[in-house]
């Protein structure tokens, strides 16, 4: 081995020792990955944890917006799930017996036959609680005489739950009514809206004399009355009216004000007798 080998090793270790001393005298280096982390899409929309930032990193405007979105989500489904526990806790405080009572069954006094429109939430507009209203909703609150879905709901509510009131509720600015007032093909909606178009046909002369907005509101009312006719042609409803005083009501919900308007649905004695003869059946 040559003498150059030990000398080189000596110089190497001397340099390494000097470098170690210099590093030891420096301040620790902090690596900040927050910008990178914040750029990664968040997988779970339900996460409520706030990101932690490095001491020398300030959140950007984008990060602040993301945090704000996470704390107050604009997605109504996510927001609803987050608010559910608060709603349940508040309701339980205000009505301690409500949920335990509902767990044992329901005793609604009202059957509500309304439109599927998201603006027409019956329990909210009535200021009532869960368990107060039995509900069937569809597009434009149309009742087809042979529809098994609405028919089953009506029979169960009247015969088994023994509700005291049956309500048919239409509303202003109804998309189904607007469709029936037009002539555009709508696929599967066309047969569904057929009873509404038939109501329009029977009242065409009256509707054509009105401005478009008033004509649409008039058709809303006529549609409610037609659906009430379907309800009161059911034997189970006629029997309940005779035997225990079941009441049937027609309402219009004003979307622009949140106010309900009750229609005069009083029938003459002759009309009631004719309906009983024609539609009431015996077991």
From TrEMBL:
Protein name according to UniProt: Carbonic anhydrase
Reaction catalyzed: hydrogencarbonate + H(+) = CO2 + H2O
Pfam families reported in the protein's UniProt record: Pro_CA (PF00484)
Cofactor(s) needed by this chain: Zn(2+)
Comp. bias regions, Low complexity: 62-71
Organism: Penicillium subrubescens
An example molecular function term from Gene Ontology annotations: carbonate dehydratase activity
GO BP, one annotated term: cellular response to oxidative stress
KW Lyase (keyword) present: yes
